[in-house]
Amino acid sequence: MNNRKWYAKGIKDGIPIALGYFAVSFALGITAREAGITPLQAGCMSAVMLASAGQFAAINVIAAADTLIQMAITTLVINLRYILMSSAMSQKLDKKMSFIHRLILPCFVTDEIFGIATNVEGRLNPFYNYGAATVAVPGWTIGTILGAAVGSILPERVEMALGVALYGMFLAIIIPGARKNKVLAVLVTVSMVLSFLFSELPVVSEISSSMRIIILTVAISAIAAFLKPIDVETEGAHGD
Amino acid sequence: METNFFIYLLVAAGTLYLIRMLPLSLIRKDITNKYIRSFLFYVPYVTLAVMTFPAILHATGSVWSGLAGFMVGVVLAFFDGNLFRVALGSCVAVFVAELLIK
Question: Quick check: A239 pLDDT over 50?
Answer without folding.
Answer: no
